[in-house]
Amino acid sequence: MMKIHRITSLGGGHGLFQTLRSARSLNIEHITAVVTVADDGGSSGRIRRELGQSPPGDLRMALAALTRDEPDGHLWEGVLQHRFGGTGALAGHAVGNLLLSGLTEYFGSQVQALDFVARTANCQGRVLPVCEQPLDIEADVSGLDDDPRIMLPVRGQVSVATTPGSVRRVRLIPDKPEACRAAVTAILDADVVTLGPGSWFTSVIPNLLVPGIVDALANTRAKKIVVLNLTAEPGETAGFSAERHIHMLSQHAPLLQVDRIIVDAATIPTQRERAQLARAAASLGAEVAFHDVQEAGTNRHDPAKLAAALVSECEKG
After folding, report:
1. 187 and which of 131, 216, 250, 263 could share a cystine (Cβ 3.0–4.6 Å)?
2. pLDDT tens, 129-146?
3. Where are the alpha helices (DSSP H) in 141-296?
């Protein structure tokens, strides 16, 4: 039986938030979030354009996820997530985004800024960017031309996430960016590494396009677990089957090998679909593990159920 002392979770946005809440509920000693930094919309996009910093939004959400389940923790979560109203220059900005941006400018390091906020808010873990530079996502998209065979480039996280076409492949700009060293160390030192759930092309796969992260995943002794999305998302993965989600991982990271793929049992009801999924998982060296992980009445993962699934898979050795 394997006990989880160190977990490192890769991703971004709401999917990573739920995974971190799962880890938090298990009282794991060392939790590290490794977060994509390619957002170019909303408050994050404005900060990125005006200050030239990496977008803080997904990093802020990960910090909020790791605030403690106690009154002071709830207060810090509310403060970090609070957005200014009105119509002025601050309208729509999240307090946490501005705090991180100011501290990044003060320290000259986003990692130092994140660590300072995590300590000050008494967060139950550490949050790191996958790279210490802002990234752009560019996708090859079909279905935007009268000829469906023609693929056109679409650049920017928001544009890729909302494209009416079908995303075939994504890449990072700059190509082959340097991974955050602390993120690499967190992967190498972990007992468990999770990837997903989340926006597949804009939060999950970008981690696999950073060479240092791929190398760390290849060399870590951690159990590597992919948490599959519950449904395809409108826009970037519209119409995708669970099997195709997995094929996209192997297409973008041919050397990636993982141990388990956690799938919500209710989303794959037939034996035929399960057999197809198992074959796709085998291309990553993985076994499929079916669990009840859906939050009732939503398309989100339930943190308590996901926590139980992670423990169950680790107990299997």
Report:
1. 216
2. 999 999 999 999 999 988
3. 157-161, 181-189, 211-219, 242-252, 271-282
